[in-house]
Amino acid sequence: MPSKLTRPASRHPLPARPAAFGLSSLHTAHIAGLSAEKALASLNSSFDGLSKSEAGRRQREYGPNRVEEVRRKALGLRFAREFTHFFALILWFAAALAFLAEHLDPGQGMGQLGVAIIGVILINGIFSFWQEYRAERALEALRELLPQQVKLLRDGQVEEAGAESLVPGDVVLLEEGDRVPADCRLIESFGLRVNTATISGESLPAARHAEPDRNETPLTARNLVLAGTTVVSGQARAVVFATGMHTEFGKIAHLTQTTREATSPLQREIARLSRLVAALASGLGVAFFLIGQAIGLPFWDNFMFAIGIIVANVPEGLLPTVTLSLAMATQRMARRNALVRHLPAVETLGSTTVICSDKTGTLTQNRMTVKRIYADGRFVALEPEGVAAPAGESIAWLLRAAAVCHNVTFGSRNGKAEFLGDPMEIALVEWARCAGWGAEGSRKIAEIPFDSERKRMSIVQQDDIRRTLYCKGALESLLAVCDTIQHDGRVLPLDASARRRLLAAQDEMATAGLRVLAFAYRHLASGEEGREERLTLCGIAGLEDPPRPEVAAAIERCRSAGIKVVMVTGDHPVTAVAIAREIGLVRGEAPVVLRGDALPKMTRAQLQLALDAPEILFARVTAEQKMLIVQALQSKGEIVAVTGDGVNDAPALKTADIGIAMGIAGTDVAKEAADMILLDDNFASIVSAVEEGRAVFQNLRKFLTYILTSNIPELVPYLAFVLFKIPLPLTVIQILAVDLGTDMLPALALGAEPPHSGLMQEPPRPRSERLLHGPLLLRAYVWLGVMEAAIALSVFFHVLEEGGWRYGRMLERHDPLYLQATAACLGAIVLAQVVNVFLCRHPSQSAFCSGVLANPLLLWGIALEAGIIVLITYTPWGNEMFGTAPLQADVWLYMIPFVCAMGAAEEARKWFCRRFMAD
C-alpha cells in the first residue's frame, strides 16, 4: 500500500440537477475500478458531498440507511411461552387434577377450583407477557437515544448526523474507532486499516487505499469499505454507493445479526430458586395429602386441599417481578445518564466490587486548555487567552505543529458551528489559531496514525516550498526518535543534559496535574518517505483537564460502599497521581503506581499481589495491558466494571463483568462491546447505576419476604383443622384469592422500589450469596408468618364464638356462621399483608423512614388489594365464588389492634438489630 496519497487538484462541482441513477445498475466491481473523480461522477456527487436538498430527495427514493433486524420469535410463540414455563406447568397439572376429581366425584367444588387455577394461569401469563414486552419496548426506546453518528459533508460543510440519514452519493469522514455506516468507495485515505471480521471472518485488520482496484469482489477490493466493518486506524474520506439492505452486510444480515445474551448470575439464581420452590411446593402438597389420609379425612376434601397447598406455595409473581424490577431500574438508570444495553446486566452491575476507570473525560471534564509550555530550556508564560509571549523560533515551530498535527475538523453539531474531534487536539488547534497559526497554505498528504504502542502520531504537510513531517505524542516516545532540539533559534544536538531537563520539566507539569505532550518536526527531501526518525524536538505543552466537580463525592460513595476504584490511564504517572489526589482517590503518601510497560514483565501472581494495595494506579497503559489488569482482578474473585471509549478499549470492555462505554467521546466499537453506555461520560453516573443495580437484588428479596410470609397463615389453619378437629378456617379458593389476587400487585410494587438511602453504605454482595437465604426464611416463615397466622386464627375463633359456636361442633360448608368466619380469617390475612408490605420495604430500617410517595405503585397495589377484599366480602358474586359472607364493622375493628401489634413487634425487632447487631 502506498504510504501517502496525493489529493486531486481538481474537483467535480455538484450538478444542479443530478441525472437519475439506480444502485442496482451500479456494480461494485465497476466503482472499485474507477478513479476517485470518476467514482464521484458516477454517483453524481463531488468531494464536497451532496446538497441538502438532493440528499433529501435521495432519502425519499432509497429510504433510510437501515439493515432490517433479524427476525425474532413470532409474537404468538413468545406469548405461548408464558404459559409453559416451570411454574405454569405445575399449575396446569393442579388444574388437570381438579377437573379429574370433579369428573370422578361431582359436586365437591373441584371443577370450580380447576376453573380458578386456569384463570390464575391466564392472568399471570398475560401480565408477564405484557410486562416483558413493555420492558423490551422501553429498552428499544432507550437505545434510540444513541443512534450511530457519522460525520459527512453536505454543501461542503462537515456535519454530524444519524447513520440512517445517509444516501448514495454522500461523502463521509471516517477515523479510528468508527463503524463504517454504509458501503463506501474511498476517495482519500491516510494509513487506513479496517477490521472486516463481520463480513469476511478475517480477524486481522486489512489495509485500504483510494487508488483504483480491479478486484472482482467487494470483499477483496482494496478501495472499498463495507457497512458493519470498523476502522482500526487511520483516516479517510469516502463516498457512499450502497445503503441499507443493498449493502453487503444487509445481504447477510440473517447470519451476522444473531444476538445472544449471556446468562447472568441473577438469571441462574432465579432458575435455581424456581426449581427449589417448585420442589418444596410439590413436597408439601404430597406430605399434607398423606397426613390427611393417615388421620382419616375425606378423600376429596384432602385431595382438594393438597392441590391448594401446591398452588399456594408457587410464587407465580416471581418471574414478572424480576422483569419489572430490572426494567424499572433500567429506566431510572437512563434518567441518571446510564443507558443499559442488556437487561440482565443491571443486577450484575449492583454486584460490582472494583471499577477500573479512565481518567480523561470520565474523572475529568474533557475540556482541555493549554496552560504551560516549555521551550528554549525554560517555561514560557501564557496570556489568559492562551497566546504564548514572547514569541521565538522554538515556540513558532511548536505552534505550527499544534496547528497541523491533528485529526480535528470544523463543522456543525446540533446546528452549532464548532471544531469536531478529540478535546485535547481541539484545545491545541484553538491555542495555535489564537496565536495566529493555522493550516492555511498547506495540505496534508500522508499520516502515520496514533497507536497505543508508539504513543505518537505524525502527519506530512505540503506547502508551496517543501514537505514537512510533524509529530506529537508522549515525551518519552518522541525522545526515542529525536536527535536534535530547537533552542534559541538554533538546532542543537539532543544530548543527555537536554533530555534530563525535558524530563524534569515534564515531571513539574505532571505534578501540577497537567497532561504533557511533546512536539517535533523534520523537513523531508524530495521523494523521501515520511518516517519518524531524526526529528527535531521543538518543545512540550501542558494541558489542563480539570476534574468533574461531582467526582470527589462519587469516589467517597464508592469507598463507603466497599467498591475499589482503580484509575487506568494512558497519561503520565505523575499527572495521574495529581488528579487522583485532587478527587480523593488517593489519600496516602505513597500510592502504588504501576506503568503499563512493567505489566508484561510481571507474573500473574505478582500482579494479583500488587492489586492488594489499598491505593493503586496504572499509567501509560495500552489496551492489552488494560485487559491484563481486568483479568487479574477477576482471578482474585472481583466483579469488575471497566470504562472505555476507544476501539482499543473493546477487549477490556468485553472481558470485564460490566463494560461501560462513553456515550459522547466513545467510539462505535466501544459502545458495541459494552453492556452500558454513559450518556454524559461522567464517573458519578456509574456510581448511581451501581446503586440502582444493587436495588434490584434487594427488591427481589423484599418481594420474596412478602409473598412467603402469607404462606404460613395459609398452612397453619389446615394444621389446626387436622390436629384440633375444628372447622377449616381457610378454603382453597380463598388461599388462591390471597396469593393470586390481593397479594400480587403489592408484591410487584416491592419489586419496583427505588434504592433506599443507606444502600451505598453496605458492602458489595458476595458472588456466592443466594437470593433465598436463611435470614429471609426465618423472618418470613418463623417471625412475620407466625404472627399473621395467629392473627388470622384469633379473628376466625372470635367470629365463631360471637355466633355461639362451641369446640367440637363441625359446621356445614354453607353455614352462614362458617362463611362469615372464613371471610374474617381471609380479611385478617389481607389486612396483615397491608401492614406487612410496608414492613418489607427494608429488612432493618423502620417502615416510617421510607416515603410512601417514592413508590406510587405501592399505593395502587394497596388500593387494589382493598378493592378485591371488598368485592369478595360484600358482593353476591364474591360470596358465591369464594365461600364468604358479609362482615360487621366490629370484626374489622377487632383486627386492627392485632395487625398494629404485628407492626410494632417488627419495628422493635428492627430497632434491636440496628442497636445491637450492626456490624
TrEMBL record:
InterPro entries: ATPase_P-typ_cation-transptr_C (IPR006068), ATPase_P-typ_cation-transptr_N (IPR004014), ATPase_P-typ_cyto_dom_N (IPR023299), ATPase_P-typ_P_site (IPR018303), ATPase_P-typ_TM_dom_sf (IPR023298), ATPase_P-typ_transduc_dom_A_sf (IPR008250), ATPase_P-type_domA (IPR059000), Cation_transp_ATPase_P-type (IPR050510). Keywords: ATP-binding, Cell membrane, Magnesium, Membrane, Nucleotide-binding, Phosphoprotein, Translocase, Transmembrane, Transmembrane helix. The chain crosses the membrane at residues 83-101, 113-130, 276-297, 303-327, 776-797, 817-840, 852-875, 887-905. Belongs to the cation transport ATPase (P-type) (TC 3.A.3) family. Type IIA subfamily. NCBIfam families: ATPase_P-type. It comes from the Bacteria. It is found in: Cell membrane. One of its GO terms (biological process) is proton transmembrane transport. The lineage of its organism: Bacteria, Pseudomonadati, Pseudomonadota, Gammaproteobacteria, Methylococcales. It holds the Pfam family Cation_ATPase_N. Its main location: membrane. It is a multi-pass membrane protein. It comes from Methylococcus geothermalis. This is HAD-IC family P-type ATPase. GO terms for molecular function: ATP binding; ATP hydrolysis activity; ATPase-coupled monoatomic cation transmembrane transporter activity; P-type ion transporter activity. Residues 30-103 form the Cation-transporting P-type ATPase N-terminal domain. Coiled coil: none annotated. The keyword Magnesium applies. One of its GO terms (cellular component) is plasma membrane.
